[in-house]
Design brief:
globular; five-stranded antiparallel sheet; mainly beta
Length: 197
């Protein structure tokens, strides 16, 4: 059975020790000067400032959508948006809208992401790969980011480490596979090369 093509970005699945992801996240800020929309599953990177979309004394680190491709680091992944009476609950962050976002930023989290049409082979488990950016969906609220199946290699500058397939029925290696990965270029931890097997 062919894998369906339905991108959703990076979805936290479990901790490195195998325990399920419990929903842990931290609050970050995106200012209205940021003209790129954010969706659930989008990777983000620290942007070197801080702020708060709501009235209050807190000041949260600013993030922006991460760039796909080798050497581009990732601080975490969008898992939600902080409720506020100042905006309609879109389920995503529209471009040029100040909003507090909830980010899964544990560098040891393991995620699931859909591969592109090239897919991933069993022989590429342990290698690294890059992301391909895609437009999020205002209907599903999910990210359009996918794993670039043309890139798996032992290059330490690639963004993701391939850990295997997501353990689910009817998921198979090849085009549009749901792949288990870990961020290889987190802003809060070191960089590693692939196994090179």
């Amino acid at each position: 059975m062919a894998n369906p093509n339905a991108p959703y970005g990076l979805k936290p699945l479990r901790e490195r020790d195998g325990s399920p992801y419990s929903g842990g996240c931290n609050t970050y800020f995106v200012p209205d000067t940021d003209n790129v929309a954010l969706f659930i599953g989008d990777p983000v990177i620290l942007a070197g400032s801080s702020g708060n979309a709501q009235a209050g004394p807190e000041s949260y680190p600013t993030v922006t959508r991460a760039t796909a491709g080798a050497t581009n680091r990732i601080s975490g992944v969008v898992v939600g948006f902080q409720p506020s009476p100042a905006f309609t609950p879109y389920g995503y962050r529209p471009a040029s809208t100040a909003m507090n976002v909830l980010i899964a930023d544990d560098p040891f989290l393991e995620y699931v992401i859909q591969a592109d049409v090239t897919g991933v082979a069993a022989t590429q488990v342990g290698e690294n790969a890059n992301l391909t950016a895609g437009s999020g969906s205002t209907a599903t609220k999910w990210s359009g980011f996918i794993l670039d199946g043309t890139t798996p290699d032992v290059d330490a500058t690639y963004q993701l480490r391939i850990l295997g397939l997501e353990p689910q029925i009817n998921n198979e290696f090849g085009a549009y596979a749901d792949v288990l990965v870990r961020i290889n270029l987190p802003t809060e931890a070191g960089i590693a090369s692939g196994l090179g097997i």
